[in-house]
Write a structure and sequence with these properties.
It is a single chain. This protein has about 190 residues and is an alpha+beta fold. The protein is built from 4 helices and 7 strands; from the N terminus they run E-E-H-H-E-H-H-E-E-E-E. Strands 1, 2, 3, 4, 5, 6 and 7 form a 7-stranded mixed sheet that branches. The mean pLDDT is about 95.
């Protein structure tokens, strides 16, 4: 899979049938899969973060496959990525796990063309993170502006990073504030 030492995998799934209005015919399924990995840069500063950058694409491939499986065969329409970095590391270590190799693998894995939203933060076991979600082909499609909130009960430990891939099957169930529609997106990654 990758050069990362994965201590644990976690899968989180939500199904939303209604949100203040009537039940919808097509529920919103959100899923997030987390790999808790060892941080090779714990306790030392390095200008070069290649030990996290280079294998991140292979880790993303595995995370994406597991996340798609968690959607139960439904197509992923939106995605996002995140990382919680244990306190003996730096926030930049999590960012290094999520940059271009990871984003490219995520887009390729779900047929996306858009910019993949992300969030990183420092934390301890049980820290919550909101991973932002956006339409996989055009960032400005407003009905997909959402997030999935999760925490990992046993991680990250101080010397670890929790790396997260998140997806959803549709936009918010009762979106009605206008903006660019999915049907009108031109697929340039933004509009």
């Amino acid at each position: 899979m990758s050069d990362f030492e994965v201590r644990a995998w976690y899968t989180h799934v939500e199904q939303i049938n209604a949100d203040g209005g009537p039940a919808v015919a097509e529920p919103l399924i959100k899923a997030a899969v987390t790999a808790v990995i060892a941080n090779p840069y714990v306790g030392r500063y390095s200008e070069n973060l290649d030990e996290l950058l280079e294998p991140s694409g292979a880790l993303a491939v595995e995370l994406v496959e597991r996340c798609k499986a968690a959607l139960g065969g439904r197509e992923a329409e939106s995605c996002g990525k995140g990382a919680i970095i244990g306190l003996a590391g730096e926030q930049e270590h999590g960012v290094a796990c999520l940059t271009t190799p990871f984003g490219d693998a995520m887009r390729n894995g779900i047929g996306g063309t858009g910019w993949v939203t992300s969030a990183t933060k420092m934390g301890t076991a049980g820290t919550q993170i909101d991973v932002p979600l956006a339409y996989k082909k055009a960032l400005f499609v407003r009905e997909f502006y959402d997030a999935i909130t999760l925490s990992i009960p046993t991680g990250p430990r101080p010397d670890e990073i929790a790396v997260i891939a998140a997806m959803a099957t549709r936009g918010r169930v009762h979106h009605r504030i206008g903006g660019l529609k999915k049907s009108d997106a031109i697929g340039d990654g933004l509009r």
